[in-house]
Write a structure and sequence with these properties.
2 copies of one chain form a homodimer. In chain A, the strands form 2 sheets. The first copy, chain A, has a 5-stranded mixed sheet, sandwiched between helices. In chain A, 31% of the residues lie in helices and 18% in strands. The termini of chain A are close together. In chain A, β9, α7 and β10 form a beta-alpha-beta unit. By secondary structure, chain A is of the alpha/beta class. The longest helix of chain A is centred in the last third of the chain and has 22 residues. The mean pLDDT of chain A is 95. The radius of gyration of chain A is 19 Å and the shape is globular. Chain A has 2 domains: 113 residues, Nucleotidyltransferase, domain 5; 154 residues, Nucleotidyltransferase, domain 5. Chains A and B meet through α6 of A and α6 of B.
């Protein structure tokens, strides 16, 4: 049986056809434009592929409450063309297949747990640090959604004593995303991250913010593995800095061999699926 | 079939016999002293009761990893007499019944979801604000544990601009518990909470810290209900202050009718089981 999968992100849509074994058989990437441009391309891609179900990992905020009349509808997303767009319902109607929906980051967490760098544990926190900061959580076979879905990027963290930058978040100013996502990094230092390699204070401050957030996530979720992905995390020098700060900030309070200098590199890790976590997780949504 | 239940807290142990319907048939409360004094009293209580299984909701930190050789053993708890005490193993051996263990706050969250103020939803965050600050999370039939168990009280929050108090936490100084648990309140203002009723700035500051924490928990866990218990929350004037701050701090970012002035009193609520959440949750651990 052929299955469809979509990773609907803020900058691109990844479309794929896969099978029950989790293999991707065909894939196409298109830019995220206005729905009037993007959706016809999606429909055109899938229409003769013979898929029986479609898994959708979508950017958010999106209504994931199956009892809600607006299930699968985008909410107050910064992508203004997509606000209130009923993405799930449109795809279900135009493709005439059942559509299963979760957030892009939740399906990435699930993909890392099923196929990637967290297959040996029962819980996995996936964080992406890029244009925004988001996260998904996999726990014993399910992803975490509730009143809404997690919005991990919008927690407040304590400011670095040397940081005078006011933050980019339109809703909260200097929340985590406002201080540590790619755009904040660029505006604070006047250059993009890849032009700042070797400037130690940039990465020390970035690691300080991300590590603070990870300590909060450890206290709240107690994940058995943390996977850090997204464009900013391609700066691999961040990993050892973040790990060191996490150990310092926890100050021995949580007992685990993983939270020691010896083993933390097996606890806070890069994605195992590199750029395929989202699309593989979307496919997993409709695998039996 | 008769079942045993223990709520093992830092100041008292509640011992009970119950049945498969979740009814408490008999109950005894004893003080938490040295294990050499407390454990014989526990054994004496249960020894002729004919219980077939025992549910234990325990203070922590405690090892809940069933693969660990120290499963059920207390860890670096501030109750120094109990550090490294193998509570689960001792009870199992002395009472010759299977023992199922979770944290006191996780079982309270589960009890509120099964019998209390969160029976209509699929997830429930239970927070206790008392001698310490802790929390448990119930999600679709399970409680949340992982690398360890949640330690919600130890997140860092931003300081109130008028607060000069340094915090009480031996590990982190001014973490949430260090700034907002009962002992912090007493040391900051020089009096116990119940002698400070009517002093507005006390409760404004307390609500500021607790609401900040709740916004973090909403962003991370997206709970469908938040139950606030513990000694400090007996100050009922805190509830409206906390609810107002939560709405202000979220600033409209999470879309839900529950996060509006009209309905938030149905979202952030007092316990439905008042002081019985812990013991009822411990019983639920061993109900079929």
């Amino acid at each position: 049986m052929l299955l469809g999968a979509i990773e609907a992100g803020g900058t691109k849509f990844v479309l794929a056809v896969g099978n029950q074994d989790g293999e991707i058989l065909d894939k196409l990437t298109i830019p995220t434009e206005h729905p009037d441009q993007t959706i016809p391309k999606v429909v055109n891609y899938f229409k003769d592929k013979g898929i029986k179900k479609l898994g959708l990992g979508a950017f958010g905020p999106i209504d994931l409450n199956q009892k809600s009349p607006t299930y699968g509808q985008l909410q107050k997303t910064p992508k203004t063309d997509w606000v209130d767009y009923p993405l799930g319902a449109v795809l279900q109607e135009k493709l005439s297949v059942p559509v299963v929906i979760d957030t892009d980051v939740n399906v990435a967490a699930m993909a890392e747990a099923k196929f990637g760098n967290a297959t040996d544990v029962d819980s996995c926190l996936y964080i992406t640090v890029g244009t925004g900061i988001g996260g998904g959580f996999y726990y014993r076979g399910q992803t975490l959604n509730g009143l809404s879905h997690p919005e991990l990027g919008h927690i407040k963290v304590r400011r670095h004593p040397d940081d005078r930058y006011q933050g980019t978040c339109p809703s909260h100013g200097d929340c985590l995303e406002g201080l540590a996502a790619g755009p904040a990094l660029e505006k604070r230092w006047g250059k993009k991250g890849d032009q700042l390699v070797g400037v130690d204070e940039v990465w020390e401050m970035e690691a300080f913010y991300l590590a603070q957030a990870l300590t909060i996530f450890i206290y709240v979720l107690s994940p058995e593995r943390i996977v850090l992905g997204g464009g900013v995390m391609k700066q691999k020098q961040l990993f050892p800095l973040i790990r060191k700060y996490v150990i310092d900030m926890l100050n021995g309070y949580v007992s685990s061999p993983y939270l020691t200098a010896d083993q933390i590199d097996q606890y806070i890790v890069a994605p195992g699926l590199t750029d395929e976590a989202g699309i593989k997780g979307a496919l997993y949504l409709v695998m039996d």
